[in-house]
Design goal:
The protein has about 150 residues and is mainly α. It has one domain. The chain has 6 helices and no strands. α1 runs antiparallel to α2. The longest helix has about 30 residues.
């Protein structure tokens, strides 16, 4: 199951980055070479960028590359290090849960707001945060269960 979720997340990131890069490149070509613009290109690039950010944050947690206070990790040893890592991971989970709650709330509240160019709900943009948070919690859960073994 873990391998499937990892694969889904990795493929989603690759596709999102490729699409975003392609849309931006095409839009630049249209603007500066053809003196025209793809009216929905900037909006789609923005949506993809937001999704890339939150899915990328989940991958950084999976790879243990997310922001951390490494200064303390290098100075502490033994039980103090284990306690510090446990505290750090608990604070990370609390922050993710707070972000999940409020981003989910906003995502549902703005469901009727429509993006002007693409004419789709802004919930599609804001939905990246709760989805990313769910992936982050999944990986933090794996980390906690691995420690318990």
């Amino acid at each position: 199951m873990k391998a499937v979720i990892n694969r889904i997340l990795d493929i989603s990131l690759i596709v999102t980055l490729a699409l975003m890069s392609l849309i931006v490149a095409i839009n630049v070509f249209f603007r500066f070479v053809l003196n025209a613009s793809i009216y929905w290109g900037d909006e789609l690039a923005l949506v993809l960028f937001v999704w890339l950010t939150f899915l990328g944050a989940a991958v950084s947690i999976r790879e243990r590359e997310h922001y951390a206070f490494n200064y303390f990790s290098g100075k502490l040893k033994g039980k103090a290090l284990r306690n510090y890592i446990l505290l750090r991971d608990c604070l990370t989970v609390i922050a993710i849960l707070v972000l999940l709650y409020y981003s989910g709330k906003v995502t549902f509240q703005i469901n009727k707001w429509i993006m002007p160019a693409m004419e789709i709900s802004r919930s599609l943009v804001y939905g990246a945060a709760p989805v990313g948070c769910l992936f982050m919690l999944y990986y933090m859960g794996l980390r906690f269960t691995a420690r318990l073994r």
